[in-house]
Amino acid sequence: MTRSQFTFVGTLVAALLSALCMAGCASSLDEAPAALSPRLLTDVAPLTTADRQRPTVALVLGGGGLRGFAHLGVLRALEEAGIQPDIVVGSSAGAVVGAAYASGLSVAQIEAIAGDLKPSSLIDLTFSASGLMRGDHIASWINTLTAGAAIEAFPRRFAAVTAWPA
Is 33 left (phi over 0), alpha (psi -120 to 50) or beta? Predict the structure, then answer.
């Protein structure tokens, strides 16, 4: 495969996954379950006294389908610079990478997982008014990735930003 063909295929896959992600993870529920009710960052354990000796560093990761794995380069650069974020916030693909990182996985571990990922394994199509994907496969994969730990138990503070359909 030539470089241009590889680039085209990669762009096509990224565009497909981005479109599916932007369409939203649909649910058969008419309202957000209690587990998905809005929470404020103030609900997370406060920083310790030792943490207050330096500025709080927040890392915010955005979406972008498979391009979200480009955040690994940012994490690698921060790691090499000795910068440890106190809190990681992510949306869409950034929430996936952020959850993996905040759960304690190293950048190298996340890179290995991303390299082995078959994007088609995350797709569970549905045809409803709420979106194109149920999101069950992504949720299951993330639970496996983070060893099923609740975000409150992550070694690094974490928040995922989302919007529930009105």
Answer: beta
